[in-house]
Amino acid sequence: MPRISHLLSSLSSALGPASARLEFKWMKQAAEQSDKGTSLVEMVERRLCGEPLQYIIGTQPFGSLELLVRPPTLIPRPETEDWTLRLAELVDPSPDRPISLLDMCTGSGCIPLLLCHTWRPGSVNAYGVDISADAIKLARDNAERCGIHVPTVTYGHSSSSFNTFKPLLGNIRDASFIHSLKLKPPFNVITSNPPYITRREFKDLPPSVRDYEDHRALLGDPDISEDELSSHLDKGLTFYRIIARLIANQGILADDGIVALEIGSTQANDVGRIMQREGRLNRIDVWKDPWDKDRVVLARR
Ligand SMILES: C[S@@+](CC[C@H](N)C(=O)[O-])C[C@H]1O[C@@H](n2cnc3c(N)ncnc32)[C@H](O)[C@@H]1O
């Protein structure tokens, strides 16, 4: 068995001494608490192979929550945490007038779960849709871990003394998902962090992302062919068009509703235009992330 000091020095060469010491401490804590009996040596070896730390230790902080993370579901990012907390302050619904929320491409459930956790009890019924069965299972496990109620049979927006979140397996590219999942539009808030990476950006992603996280969570134009790579079609915008059409044609947004969409840092103009032209939403705002990059398009009628 490799000696711990040898592993720490290999980690140091790979990550630099400061990060290596921190990560080593977190992996040690996780190994001590591991119910699967995963050893520290195994954890460090996986890290040295390039696996993301969060998948190894199994959790990731997200606002006031400590969410479970499992491959291949996307690990929630700090920029998503930042705008979710900002949205929580902006909307802040009251239990006297509970709202409904639809999160498309919900992944781990991080966005609706943090909103459900932050908003006052009884003020929101949230739904999350994702095409990945792994993601939906993880979102359910996260709801349970965070103490957010998952309704079993209730559809529609019931008023209760607690907030609810229902993760549902579905494909948002098939507009019939609204009907087949028995969702009851319109929703007061629509959120989404859809896949938005272009094929060209995908090729330059670090291996820790490309080799471990679900490609369906990343690629913004999943159907684009090699021939179309250099064309204007490779802009990572497919999912914004789908969401805009759902809003314009399926009536999924309440008249005074709000849409919050995470974007790639160069996509604000395109996504704003798509929401205006195809979603028929006139009021567009762009939020920056803490690193001063355009990160969210907010759209209202
Ligand atoms: C960028 S990840 C976002 C996950 C999570 N909301 C977050 O912020 O961490 C995009 C998610 O979209 C899901 N997805 C991809 N195509 C989809 C589709 N056609 N219908 C529904 N979900 C889809 C992926 O499975 C993935 O979980």
UniProtKB/TrEMBL annotation:
Coiled-coil intervals, chain numbering: none
InterPro entries found in the cross-reference section: HemK-like, N5-glutamine_MTase, SAM-dependent_MTases_sf
GO biological process: methylation
Keyword annotations from UniProtKB, A to Z: Methyltransferase, S-adenosyl-L-methionine, Transferase
GO annotations of cellular component type: mitochondrion
Keyword S-adenosyl-L-methionine: yes
Single GO MF annotation: protein methyltransferase activity
Keyword S-adenosyl-L-methionine set for record: yes
Signal peptide positions (record): none
Recorded superkingdom: Eukaryota
Gene3D superfamilies on file: DNA helicase RuvA subunit, C-terminal domain (1.10.8.10), Vaccinia Virus protein VP39 (3.40.50.150)
Protein name listed in UniProt: S-adenosyl-L-methionine-dependent methyltransferase
